[in-house]
Amino acid sequence: MSTHTRIRKFNTKDTYPNQSLDNDLCQAVRAGNTVYVRGQIGTDFDGNLVGLGDPAAQAEQAMKNVKQLLEEAGSDLSHIVKTTTYIIDPRYREPVYQVVGKWLKGVFPISTGLVISALGQPQWLMEIDVIAVIPDDWHSPTGD
């Protein structure tokens, strides 16, 4: 029996048809009480980019994804202990962090922010990944 739950498994040949990749990945992994969420961008789970050219709109969609993945793992946003945010332009810091801050108001995670030269696709302006730790006495609203 595996102690790891892999959420929303996929293969990169399906999600990145414009690249020669064939990697088995997933969107989140729950290992015991810890949930690791893969970097989320402004693309919904149907593959539609939200907010072309708009870092705040992309951050909004990325945080919607984070929330949904944590809930699928039996967790929620309040359990986030660490975020790592990547932006491709330092001018995007304020709009992206305002959105992330709105979603994580009262959570107080540790945070790392990086300005990088590019992300996996040219239309992506930001990406965020998170780690959450579910308290031992937590009972998910979904019963997980």
Tell me the span between the first and last alpha carbons: 17 Å
Order of helices and strands: EHEEHEHEE
Look at the structure and give the mean pLDDT.
90
Main beta sheet strand tally, sense and closure: 6 strands, mixed
Q: What are the segments in which pLDDT stays under 50 over at least 5 consecutive residues? A: none
The dominant shape is globular
- How many DSSP H or I helices? 3
In percent, how much strand structure appears in the residues?
A: 25-35%
Give the strand line-up of the largest sheet.
Answer: 1-2-3-6-4-5
Number of strands: 6
Rg, nearest Å: 15 Å
Query: Helices and strands: which structural class?
Result: alpha+beta
- Helix amount, in percent? 10-25%
